[in-house]
Write a structure and sequence with these properties.
The complex is a heterotrimer. Chain A is mainly alpha-helical. Chain A contains 12 helices and no strands. Classes of the chains: A mainly alpha, B mainly alpha, C alpha/beta.
């Protein structure tokens, strides 16, 4: 029983990471640094809450969340691809914008600076964690997100072009690939996917709360780097990070390791991986250079 | 070899023209950005059904309209200057320091803990240098890690600084919560020595504000950074590394060492910012006190164009917005300020390449015309 | 004189009858092409006739305009004047996409390939085969495999590009072009990165394509290759086509003469710097321009031959690797005596950059020893070598030699900053300023304001800043790499004078230059680098453009050097 509880908890914690990491791969594989997953998630969660509240429908909420996050991604794409703005600076600015704007509009919409009213979700209420997780379509989408990205990257023409653009945009250009279009597509897709992560969070908690993503976007980025930009390895990293978290929650006070140290795991592992101390992570060659 | 290469500069007015061009390239983007932010701000205020001019007036009154407001602006600008310098110094060496948040917190933690352990009644002249060094050492220790990893292993400092923020903040949270905090709080006991007086002790008009004498320490540090960057060999080599690493290498500069030094100093500067809170305001380290100030340093450095003087002005600007935001909170959520900050950063980031390209294209056209006339 | 003038002086551009038979109907005809980049004339007047089913060699020195001409053919650049016709149709100003659609494909010198993708993925990128809207990977591999078999471009379609050798990567590049249906291949310096067996294989592939009715234009400066592969050859010099002949009717020596130019003239010299003067008036290049000052025969040898004393710089069996070649410098030994200028000639990319970088301390030696005044400096840092008496004018002033956003004064102490620093690490701005004023005056740098950023100076004055810094200090050995590249005539003369003065005062200079006239004008001894090896080392008296040209192009000397 405890095993099932652990697995369910892991899945619950892994889902937002899986969505956001899928988005992170798409962004980084077209050459745009995925510093903005956090902001996309937050935007997605907020827009999902707004959509679900005003329509009363979880599906509308989901679509609104994806749309809102995609719009935020479009802003990032515009400044980095069209205006060649520095990706690091722009990414951080869009994150700040997401934090500020969601709180600002939260007050505008609900006159509260902490949380939205209760919103509908996908899970059937009062039917146990296992049942509500299995009947939640978002859970299935999340499980399938990274396999879908793997398929997209390796089995479709779009995916082939994405891989070419992220590694060698000039080569793609001379082969007749529209590099800007591929970059926009990757960034927008990353917004939509990370937006879904936010939708999941808001629907699961049945409300939007201020800054509810709490660094999960950066954990997803850590998973992307630790998983070396390969979808199935990234999925494994997400599950590993979630499992560590689930374990520490289950053990609670009995745990020998303080929660803070568990929280650090993704970040420490990523730094170690970047330094090449155990198996070097090599980023897409054109990452961060959108001025080609 | 680019085409303008063969265009001779006309000697007599070259310097003036060049000065003007460099000034244009430097100052136009922040102006464009502030105008964009103004428009966005107006729209957001209108969305709340308020009058933009009234809100902006209130914002100014709440910041520069009275002694308390000015004091608060000065207090906030002190920290922002430090995190702005922390970004700028790294930037001058060609690196992104996104880790000011963790560096600032680590500095505050070091100052708080050392201050707590000092014998009570230790005179300020002894305690202050000790605590300033502790704050800088704490921040520097966090800053030097990504610098070294970049120099030694080529690890991308953007990711490492971001990830390190989470690691450092979690560590400090653990150390504070489980070992050092006063019961029912997340802060350490008060420091036993080294507290700095408030500015209101000298200028009563500042009464009630958090402005304190750490502003002098930070002002001194700002001057020192400018002097170091532009007057010392180490600063010369650091700037050379940031502009053209290959040329720096040719000039005998150890590029890796420049990177490590830059990040060490950047971290120390961010750490220094913590004395404003720990020695001047609350007199203890509190979990989360740095929240937001680190990232704001990026905006400050961008608007201040990585120059110490510009950074001080930009820090004042953002401190004004931040303080004024509180004053208008009843009419418009204070988060409008966060939105405006983000808009300013985005607008500058997007307009620097655009403005430069536009200006250079215009100059190129002029130069070509000159050549064709001459031919 | 075998070289055949292409145009009558009045500009008539009717090609001479070849008399080689009707089967050579022209596939490509470029006439009266001109192209300038800003103020720099890349092509002054060039033409090219390529018949269907032939392999045509396009030869010339660096900067002769070969690549620019081919970029115009491939639609990458549009000509300022002249016409491009392919298969009889006027296609002047077409785009790269038009060119590909018409079956004209270019194989670039710098590969445009994506390392983590497979061979097949690289080849089909942009034109991927589909199945049910998906990428049909197995069909791509099958098609590419078939194409590879048919053409003899042996490479496994499912191999990752990153696992291939340079030669194999080039085959992929050619496959890419052929996959797009190219019937006319343009290859830009295809053998620069290949080993001899790979070169032979490439030739057999090209012959196979020719047998199937395909056409190829091969850009090269290696004359042995011209002889081996081409049916006809066109020679360019200084942005002009200067000769065209049947390969069977010529010899490497004749081609070398045509490439380098019989008479050492300004037109040839300056073109290497990228600029053709006197072109605007449409005059022939040699008529109204005074002889190159450095080419005056009285100045080509020093007043007194240097005495053979202990060498100031000695290199023993030096090998250096680069990202492109395992042994970019391959076991080179040479020495320079005090008061001697040793010139290194050679077509660029034959190891010159790596040689200079290794001596300067910017690249590690994988084998061998570098001695400065008898002292082993092989593992010393850049600064330690500078302190030991090494000065270095780098070949690329804009990325290495100068910090463009620093002031002239600050650039004049780059690499010497520790000499302009107080014990406490503070820069001595008064001495930096005084040094700047002195250097600006002595080296006539304009404008004279030491506070201007170097970016604001012209190329010639930027180079004077580098020269002033590197020659204004104490040194025993100077590495001068391309010291006059992109510099105007007056500055060239000035820089040459500085180099001669340095020699006269007993300093040793290693002069590396792509400008043969410069090497001939200044050097006491001249070596030629070819394929990373020192093909020959001659006394000035034994060297001439013709002799050097043959070594530079591999027409002679290679076999002695290798064995």
């Amino acid at each position: 029983m405890i095993i099932i509880a652990f697995l369910l908890q892991t899945l619950r914690l892994a889902l937002p990471l899986l969505f956001a990491a899928a988005g992170g791969i798409m962004s980084e594989r077209v050459g745009i640094i995925a510093l903005t997953l956090e902001g996309f998630m937050l935007t997605g969660a907020f827009c999902a809450a707004i959509g679900a509240l005003y329509s009363g429908s979880a599906v509308v909420g989901l679509l609104a969340g994806m749309a809102g996050a995609t719009l935020a991604a479009a802003l990032l794409g515009l400044v980095t691809i069209r205006f060649q703005a520095d990706q690091v600076v722009s990414g951080i600015a869009v994150n700040l914008l997401a934090v500020g704007a969601t709180t600002f509009f939260l007050r505008l919409a609900f006159d509260s600076s902490s949380n939205s009213p209760r919103i509908p979700g996908f899970s059937t209420e009062g039917s146990g964690v296992a049942y509500s997780t299995i009947t939640n379509p978002l859970a299935w989408m999340g499980v399938l997100a990274l396999p879908a990205i793997a398929f997209l990257l390796h089995k479709t023409i779009f995916g082939l072009r994405v891989r070419a653009v992220g590694e060698h945009p000039e080569a793609a250009e001379t082969a007749g690939v529209d590099v800007s279009a591929i970059r926009y597509a990757g960034v927008l897709l990353s917004g939509a996917l990370a937006g879904l992560a936010g939708v999941y969070l808001a629907m699961e908690q049945h409300q939007f709360t201020n800054n509810m993503t709490a660094g999960r976007g950066f954990i997803a980025l850590a998973a992307v780097i630790f998983g070396r930009w390969m979808p199935m390895r990234v999925a494994a990293a997400c599950i590993l990070f979630a499992a560590a978290d689930a374990l520490s929650i289950l053990l609670g006070q009995a745990g020998a390791v303080p929660q803070q140290f568990v929280d650090m795991i993704p970040f420490v592992l990523t730094i170690v991986a970047l330094a090449g101390i155990v198996g070097r992570s090599v980023a897409p060659a054109a990452l961060g250079k959108a001025d080609a | 070899m680019s085409a303008p290469d063969v265009v001779e500069s006309a000697a007599p007015d070259a310097r003036a023209a060049d000065r003007r061009e460099r000034l244009e390239e430097m100052i136009l983007p922040p102006i464009v950005a502030l105008l964009v932010a103004l428009v966005v701000g107006d729209l957001l205020i209108l969305a709340f059904g308020q009058s933009p001019s009234y809100v902006f007036q209130l914002l100014l009154e709440g910041s520069w309209g009275n002694g308390y407001g000015i004091g608060q602006v000065l207090y906030k600008a002190t920290t922002f200057t430090c995190t702005g310098l922390a970004f700028a110094v790294a930037s001058r060496a060609g690196l992104f320091n996104i880790g000011a948040e963790g560096q600032l917190a680590a500095g505050g933690f070091a100052a708080g803990v050392i201050g707590m352990l000092l014998p009570a009644g230790l005179p300020l002249v002894v305690a202050l240098p000790l605590l300033v060094m502790a704050a800088m050492a704490g921040g520097g220790a966090v800053g030097v890690v990504p610098g070294y990893l970049r120099a030694r292993f080529g690890a991308n400092e953007v990711i490492v600084t971001i990830m390190l923020n989470f690691v450092v903040l979690a560590l400090l949270n653990w150390a504070t919560a489980s070992h050092l905090a006063m019961p029912e709080t997340l802060h350490t006991p008060e420091i036993a020595a080294g507290a700095l007086p408030r500015l209101s002790a000298l200028i009563p008009a500042f009464h009630g504000s958090a402005a304190n004498f750490s502003i002098l320490v930070v002002a001194l540090a700002t001057v020192a950074v400018g002097w170091w960057l532009f007057r010392t060999r180490s600063g010369y080599e650091l700037r050379a590394t940031g502009l053209q690493p290959e040329a720096a290498e040719y000039g005998g500069v150890n590029v890796g060492r420049s990177w490590t030094t830059a990040m060490l100093v950047a971290g120390a500067l961010a750490g220094l910012g913590s004395i404003n809170f720990v020695l001047g305001y609350k007199l203890y380290y509190e979990d989360g006190f740095a929240s937001g100030s680190g990232f704001l340093g990026i905006a400050v450095a961008l608007v201040g164009r990585n120059h110490p003087l510009g950074i001080v002005l930009a820090a004042l600007l953002f401190a004004t917005l931040s303080q004024g935001g509180l004053a208008v909170n009843a009419l418009v959520p204070k988060e409008i300020v966060d939105v405006l900050q983000a808009v300013v950063i985005l607008a500058i980031a997007a307009s620097v390449p655009a403005v430069r390209a536009e200006l250079r294209a215009a100059r190129g056209r002029k130069a070509l015309k000159r050549v064709e006339r001459a031919a | 004189m075998i070289t055949e003038p292409l145009h009558a002086p009045d500009g008539a551009s009717e090609p001479e009858p070849e008399g080689t038979g009707a089967e050579l109907s022209p596939a490509v005809r470029l006439t009266g092409i001109r192209k300038r980049f800003g103020a720099v004339v890349a092509i002054a007047d060039a033409s090219l006739d390529v018949a269907r089913g032939e392999i045509h060699a396009l030869v010339g020195e660096n900067g002769a305009g070969k690549s620019t001409l081919m970029h115009i053919l491939a639609g990458v650049l549009a000509p300022d004047a002249g016409t491009v016709s392919v298969n009889g149709a006027d296609v002047t100003g077409w785009t790269a996409a038009d060119a590909i659609a018409a079956g004209v494909g270019m194989v670039y010198q710098h590969f445009m390939l994506v390392p983590p993708l497979t061979v097949a993925e690289n080849v089909v990128l942009g034109l991927e085969p589909k199945r049910f809207g998906m990428y049909d990977g197995s069909r791509a591999e099958q098609e590419v495999g078939e194409l590879a078999r048919r053409t003899g471009l042996r490479v496994s379609p499912n191999a990752l590009l990153s696992s291939l050798s340079v030669g194999e990567a080039q085959r992929v590049e050619i496959l890419k072009v052929l996959y797009r249906g190219a019937r006319l291949l343009v290859l830009d310096e295809p053998t620069a990165v290949l080993s001899p067996p790979e070169v032979d294989e490439l030739w057999s592939v090209l012959r196979g394509l020719r047998a199937e009715g395909g056409t190829a234009v091969v850009i090269t400066h290696r004359l042995d290759e011209v002889m081996a592969i081409s049916d006809r050859v066109t020679v360019m010099r200084g942005g002009r086509t200067v000769a065209r002949m049947r390969t069977a009717d010529t010899s490497p020596a004749e081609l070398a003469r045509a490439m380098v130019g019989r008479e050492v003239t300004l037109a040839g010299a300056v073109a290497i710097g990228g600029e053709v003067l006197g072109e605007e008036r449409g005059s022939p290049p040699n008529s109204n321009i005074p002889p190159h000052p450095t080419a005056a025969p009285t100045e080509t040898t020093p007043a007194q031959p240097p005495q053979r004393t202990a060498p100031a710089l000695e290199i023993r069996n030096l090998s250096v690797s680069s990202s492109r070649r395992e042994r970019a410098v391959d076991s080179i030994s040479l020495s320079i005596a005090p008061g001697e200028i040793v010139g290194i000639a050679g077509v660029e990319g034959n190891g010159q950059t790596e040689l200079v970088h290794a001596i300067a301390g910017l690249a590690p030696a994988i084998a061998g020893t570098i001695l400065l005044d008898g002292r082993d400096v092989t593992i010393l840092s850049v600064r330690e070598r500078a302190e030991a008496g090494l000065s270095h004018i780098p070949e690329d002033r804009q990325t290495r030699g100068l910090i463009l956003d620093f002031s002239v004064a600050d650039n004049l102490v780059l690499g010497l900053q520790h000499h302009y620093t107080s014990a406490s690490g503070v820069l001595d701005s008064a001495r930096i300023a005084a040094n700047a004023v002195e250097s600006i005056r002595h080296f006539d740098i304009r404008p004279t304001d030491p506070n201007l950023p170097v970016r604001a100076l012209s190329g010639g004055n930027q180079q004077k800043v580098v020269i002033a810094r590197e020659m204004g200090r104490d040194f025993r050995v100077l590495l001068a790499a391309q010291p006059t590249r992109g510099v105007d005539v007056g500055a060239i003369e000035f820089i040459h004078e500085q180099l001669r003065n340095a020699r006269a005062s007993g300093l040793a200079i290693l002069l590396v230059s792509a400008d043969l006239n410069e090497v001939l004008a200044l050097s006491d001894r001249i070596g030629v680098l070819y394929g990373g090896r020192l093909a020959v080392m001659l006394d000035r008296a034994d060297a001439s453009a013709e002799v050097l040209g043959q070594y530079m192009t591999g027409a002679s000397g290679v076999h002695e050097a290798v064995s």
